[in-house]
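Record format v2
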Amino acid sequence: MVPLDYYLVLSAIIFVIGVTGVVIRRNIIVVLMSVELMLNAVNLTFIAFSRSLGSMDGQVIVFFVMTVAAAEAVVGLAIIISVFRHRQTLDPQEMQLLKW
Amino acid sequence: MILFFILAGLSIAFSLLVVFQRNVVHSALALVATLFLIAVLFLTLEATMVGILQILVYAGAIMVLFLFVIMLLHPGALEGRRTLWWTVGSVGGLLLLFEFVRLLVGSATPAAAPAPSSASFGSPEALAQSLFNDFVLPFEIASVLLLVAIIGAVVLAKREM
Amino acid sequence: MTAMMIDIGIMAAKALLVLSMVLNLAGLLGWVERKGSALIQDRIGANRASILGFAGLGLVNTLIADPIKFLTKEDFIPPRGDRLLHTLAPCVALFPALVTFAVIPFGDVLMLGDREINLQVANLNVGILYIFSMASLSVYGIVIGAWASNNKFSLLGGVRGSAQMISYEIAMGLSVMGVLMVYGTLELQAIARAQGDLLWGWLPAWGIFLQPVAFLLFFTAAVAETKRIPFDLPEGESEIVAGYHVEYSGAKFLMFFTGEFAEIVTAAALVTTLFFGGWQLPYLLRDGFHFPWGTTLWLPHLLVVLLQVGAFTLKVVFFCWLQILVRWSLPRFRYDQVMRLGWKMLLPLAFVNVMVTAVWIVASQNSP
């Protein structure tokens, strides 16, 4: 049986990798993917706690996180497509104008 | 235990590939691999239903959407590797990780309770019982959220109003 | 210790049996397709290759000459393509088609001595959802292959394929909902077992009789998922050359090809299990035939199991043949027609089916 701490440390590592990705990358699609990585790290902690506390609540919350992630990805990608149409770039640094 | 270390090592390696790679498609595929491995980790934690949903929803639908958009936009040029910025970001990440681990190891996490290895734990029935008894209102709100997301995506992607 | 060894041995034997069954069926389907299409189009079909003048109805062509040709062809990777992903794609395409079979039951329990063997490789409580999750991964083979080829036609095929497969996955999942509601379980073995009941004392409670609309929707969506005519938009020879596998040759192309046929077999097995009783033979129970008019025919256990496995195989072969018939008799849809069919016809119909089924179940529960 793997101790709970191991799962928490693993999810902390993945979360930090996601944060790093959001900070350093200049491609907005990769930034969005790093956010997905962070969400998944959090999901992992929820599932680990759900197992160690013997409660289904954690799994239900993961279910909701997936729903929200799906909605977020859909809207985020739609925004990316419409921005790309106007500016022909995926670099968030070049999206600083408030008008097009 | 060995299984956990293999899965953990692989998922860390693939999530590093997601971030530190200049090719967007490679990043996306590495993310698919990471999500798949995390789903297997869910299975080892007796969350069968959620693990399967993770593959179905995340790897099977959301990531296909990502790849679809990448192929549609087809950004040809590789992103430049700004060495200084990448180093600063990575060092910042390492500091954050150090802080997390310090907090996690220092704090008294709940002792791993005797595993609730009833056969139904993590099964579709158990999840549905929890979902439709205690979490009915959030469930309905989630459905509204999805509807709003669909409408929002259609409006955004439409060429002209 | 020895008991565990025997268990592992039995598991391995079951997995090997199922895998060889799928792959052999997939290989034979190549022959059935060539000869069948020749029959439909009034041609003679594959008969050029022969050993000492023996062409064996084209079997020599498809089973001996074709593999040799495929395996000895040059493996071409486009110079500006992606070497790693180009090699990975066919494996990714083949993998989900083979692993889905793990949860499909091909027989009832087999008693050997005092050991009960469930004739199904893995009995998961998520059952059908496992199949859907694996099927949702099969789109990656197309997408990766299309992108790694660095070819406009294959990229177009990949974009078409990913959109089409996501669309029809939703319709497929929703059409199965009705069946799951009727039988009240996700486990395929339990669904197959429940179909052994009789309605009004004589009609087997197969899915097709309880959920005819769901069968039509599911079969359509399953054919669309296998990416064959009339849904072969990702390939579309006359429009985009060969779509996602235009840059593939040799053994890698053979893997795409085998994956496609394995998907046909899986689709046929799913249709059989969900709608046509799986391994059930009408009126055959564990100890023999019990006909509704009162006759009883006792049979030994081993013969019953053999009959059940045989019935399952026969049904699967029938639905494979039906899919090949469909493929050679219909023209290709236009892309907008495929999307309209998926989103505006199949999906709403599946919703209506789920609603009607729900009302029917509640009504039949309330009226004793």
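Chain B touches chain A through 79 residues (CB under 8 Å).
Chain B has a mean pLDDT of 80.
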